[in-house]
Q: What sequence folds into this?
């Protein structure tokens, strides 16, 4: 029997959307108000969906404490109360929520081994969400 | 790399569920209180999920401003503060949320070309939601 | 010791905002898209706040089952899946949410005696709410 | 045309996570604070997703009233305001939310025939959710 | 200038409503399904509202970190993943949410001195909330 | 008859909490991670509560369209997708949410005349909210 577990965490960050390879007017056109030079910010919600066999003895897909510890160390400590543009990973990558999703997926996919990481979903506002599933 | 973007909008409409080809008692039986002749209404939330390659330069699946403009013109202006039963599209189609989902999918699928429309989801109340994915 | 208990219920109704004593153009100006002749609708959430001494034996302000039964009979049966404009109480009263609040307050105030009705709050959408406290 | 309908219900239960085949220290290690001998509890939200052809006449996947009646009888009456550990189904099965999901899926899958049961999702808290889709 | 700060925390507990001084049938009548001998549980949300002068230098009513530390030590460690009926404070007090509110108010009122505790609000479910303001 | 209307809007901004008159270590101590030099951000929700007589003809406290237009011009255009620290009003005022509340209250109080501004509430995250009522 395979089940899925979705776990959510929240962090607050700022960012500015600006691509170095585009001109000022192209950046303004592509990103609109998100290109504002002083930046802006969001309360991000990230949900990681992991899947796996339900253990016959414990009745669990994986240990939530372990999942929380991984997220705390690799996601919350990296992003919470930070300006995304100043982080190493976004030096050559625009910190759109699409790219943030992909990066969080990569970190879980490479480092979290207790269950299969199926999908990462990031909500940027209550009206916007982004998903990446490794395709 | 393929990512997905979900965007939500809200509109307030009224409707009455009533099929012309059914008798009064069949309508009452099938639709219950939703068959009340004077109608009732809902705050609908519609979420469109679009998918596509994340652009290597912009880091985006598609332009949100463009998606919003399409929804404003083709969904919100059509449905917000309207009685669904009076609209052309529901003259021969009962305005259930299943049919509303299908119609919004059709409109996006035919007219929105900046990314692939994967799925339309409409929440009728906080306890009911409907999805259509073109199957 | 005085405590307060807030209880919420939901109903779905349609309405049209239109004042008989105003001209067509005045109605259009005052109510905007809410004056649309065919009506529109909402999922309303009503919260009644009651207050009273916490009973030393039971530890309760009042019996929730009794409060629910009152709301079911006097609010939900009256309004759920109805067109507010067709109801007796709104024959000479525009069914704005302000008036809906006042009417629900009146019904609780006159009929519910197990605790003091402090305030009625109605949410028309996730962004709009109205309150009446008997002032 | 195939559409999907998601319907949500809520119930409040208590449970204790404890596997008979594990030692006291193993239980403490696996379940942490959820192994507290006196139990704890949650407001669970269950969402059942059903899918099927949209009926050409009624415009519906299935009758919501029938779906609600089934859930009321087989889920809410079984679990609401109960201690999960005392129920027959959890005598030899740890009442984790993974196992709760599977059990609710089984009940719907075996007994609800008006539409295909695609997936059962249970939210244990606002940050935790579990899904089972019969795999 | 006086401002107010509301801060929310969540905990999951079980309880049984049962008054020692009432007979079995009285308990069943007063508490209904909440009197179930095996108990049930909730995800509680507690919000403490504190008020005070906004400091002219820091722009703050009080230090959130201090408020969180107090809540962690005196509320979350006391109640989270516990059976309320087993706790000292509820040995002679029915663990209704009214009494839980009063107890949390008392703890903050007596021990938290960085700002005035104005009100404690506890949500038992998404439809029920209770408040106590020291009256 | 006096009723109250609460209206909510959302904006996304970044800020850094740092008081010029404090030393680096004092700032670090007072603001913790909010003092991070590169800033961070939030999705802010602002709710303005206005009160007034319900007009006997229109059934309304005030015109929602007018209220929205005022908020759009004086709040959303000022703050949305901005870095609060770069704005004139926060040149000598730390952009805490307490001060943001007071400033939005001041703007409404001085400029919005169609109803009495009773209170401004700003939610910084789903767990934090601030209120100012002109005291």
A:
């Amino acid at each position: 029997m395979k089940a899925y577990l979705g776990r959510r965490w929240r962090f607050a960050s700022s960012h500015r959307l600006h691509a170095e390879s585009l001109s000022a007017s192209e950046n303004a056109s592509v990103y609109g108000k998100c290109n504002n030079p002083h930046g802006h910010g969001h309360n991000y919600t990230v949900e990681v969906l992991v899947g796996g066999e339900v253990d016959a003895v414990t009745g669990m897909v994986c240990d939530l404490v372990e999942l929380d510890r991984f997220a705390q160390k690799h996601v919350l400590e990296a992003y919470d109360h930070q300006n995304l543009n100043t982080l190493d990973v976004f030096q050559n990558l625009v910190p759109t929520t699409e790219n943030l999703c992909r990066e969080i997926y990569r970190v879980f996919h490479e480092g979290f081994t207790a269950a299969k990481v199926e999908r990462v979903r990031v909500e940027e506002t209550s009206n916007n969400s982004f998903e990446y599933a490794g395709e």
